Structure of Ig-like domain-containing protein:
Amino acid sequence: MCFLMLVPSALLFLFPRQSNGPADRSSREEGAPPECYQAERRGPTFVHEPPRRVDFSNSTGATVACAATGSPEPRISWTAADGSPVEDVRGLRYARPNGSLVLPPFRAEDYRQDVHATVYRCAASNPVGAVVSRDVHVRAGGPQHELFASMIRHDGCARRGGVEEFV
């Protein structure tokens, strides 16, 4: 038989100890409660910590994996370099339930520095503790023609950084 006990910020499973003979039986007969043990609780540790750097192109996108173990199971979240929570940005960034941060392929004109060239951190937490990953520097780049192709004007000039260049 298992008993579940809820304590603020903890979940304990208590199991009666198996009887080892007459001594155990006599103590129970005298009204003593059976001896129990507590399920092991562990703070989170990374199973897969994200890399320090993720370079990708707008045509491929990127998935940054983050996974942790602990008891109870940790919750994975992503933060920006300043510690603020990373929110989903429709079509540009979202977190999967498995803890991965996804930066899907995007059109050059949808590039955002705060999404595609920034620093993220993965955090794993449970009631026992928390861990935070190293900084993950992401950068959308690759051949310049991928990001700037949509900026080519019909007259054969390209505008990059406010300077017109002939193509």
Q: What stands out?
A: Residues 1-15, 24-29, 143-167 have pLDDT under 50 and may be disordered. The domain at 43-141 is CATH 2.60.40.10 (Immunoglobulin-like). The first strand starts at residue 3 and ends at 7. The chain has two domains: 3-39, 43-141.
